Amino acid sequence: MKEARSLGASPAPPVSRFFGIDALQKMMKSFNEGNVADYMFEWLDKYGPVHRFEFLNEYTLLTVEPEHLKTILATEFESFEKGEVFNWCFQAVLGTGVFNSDGVLWKFHRSLTRPFFSRDRITDFELFNHHADTVISKIKQRAVEQEPIDFQDLMSRFTLDSATQFLFGSCVDSLSAPLPYAWNSLKSNPPGPIPASDQFAEAFNQAQTQTAVRTRLGDLWPLLELFRDKTKDSMRTIHDYIEPILRDAISRKALTKLLSVEEKEMPETLLDSLLLVTDGGLIGLGLKLTNDERFVSIMIAGRDTTTATLTFLFYCLSQHPEVLAKLRKEIFEVVGPSGRPTYQNIKECRYLRAVINGHLTSAPSYARRALTLPAVGTGKPIYVPKGAGVGYSVYVMHRRTDLWGPDAHEFDPERFLDHRVQKYLTTNPFVFLPFNAGPRICLGQQFAYNEISLIAVRLLQAFEDIQFSTIAQPPESKPPSSQEGLTLAKYSTEKIWPKVHLTIYSHKGLWLTMKEARNF
Q1: Is 442 known as a binding-site position?
Q2: How far is CA 155 from the centre of its chain?
Q3: Nearest-CA neighbor of 170 among 78, 253, 247?
Q4: For residue range 129-169, what is the model confidence (pLDDT) as tens digits?
Q5: What CA–CA distance (Å, rounded) separates 44 from 38?
Q6: What domains are defined for the chain?
Q7: Which pTM value belongs to this model?
């Protein structure tokens, strides 16, 4: 560690022995059988907010320290990159899109995407309202049948339809497909072939899960895929689903070329804009998969992250009727019992924003050169060798009691309204990073807030009570009963099993019953 001494730094404490096999086993056990980030909570307790994991020839730092995230994401942004290992793990699914690129290519993707999240575009709520009407109708139908609904599945369809219409100008209309019934319902799911939108959603989830496995194995992941690429079948389904959307956009582009300069309009969607600058990539019938993968990247951001937020938000509301009542009271005062919310209405709903923030919750980078991360407490700076992986978990950081108080693990929207804002957040903004930070901050964060806020308002106008349906949850969806080796079991008392691939989700769905409001 001569280089570390020359930098006046110390290596982070190790969490692994036996060439890292023990730590890798713990990580994979947590991923497959445990709760979200079990191992990181345990290591946080044992080793502090930063530690290192060495597996054979790999050197990876894991941190949940706000000052470290500030360094990685902002002040030393140019010193970190996604890197070859990350790119290798994600290439088959994300291609060279904005989430899987560095340098000039990443800047190109950002500049191409940014104009489509202007205020004028993201404050047009008609798109959301159209799909919200369908969602409300679906829930009412289940209420009449006295059947629960898989809310996670429903929100996945809502966000998918909204995202594809907003970004690609062509709604995939997944909300029109029949919704599943609970595993023990006397009503059966409709016979016949599985709807294409459902096949796409399942393939999307499988591809992300396999990619998450790869990231945990690092550059050894090909050993488990010697005979076949385990994302291949899923990606074929995804490409088959996306292809008609691309063909439609190509047809629009071909027609545009026939127009005079005066008749041509600016690109209406992100897809139209991409086609303008990838003329060689989407010619005729020979669609290049690399372009499909760019859209997969965008759809992960547009569908999965928002679905996760809505799923766990409404789970929390089902467990906290006092929060639900207070939130409905604010909505009725600002918007009314049946009015459609405007952008100004959403801005005025302070408690709604606090409720969303109360829910919002690992991303790896690689060091371009040897450098250090800021010291923790009174210690020395942390040594980061060139080429080392640096992983961080916003999810765990948001649950650190020393950063958020003794109730950090509790769902408490008031923390974003009372004295705790000044005590914890204002003095250290990097403790709360639901949308990342620095140059890679999420371009669609306001779009997401608006979408989440609108559907939440519409649903809470229409339904006055939300109940978690224990009997409808499949037996395999129950969270693990034991947390071997875990000193801080966040979800040991929860009724659902949060798991993670590229985003967090509720294993086997979230089954709710919702009672229609009497004044709606």
Answers
A1: yes
A2: 13
A3: 247
A4: 999 999 999 999 999 999 999 999 999 999 999 988 888 78
A5: 10
A6: 2-111+360-438 (no CATH), 117-359+443-516 (1.10.630.10)
A7: 0.88
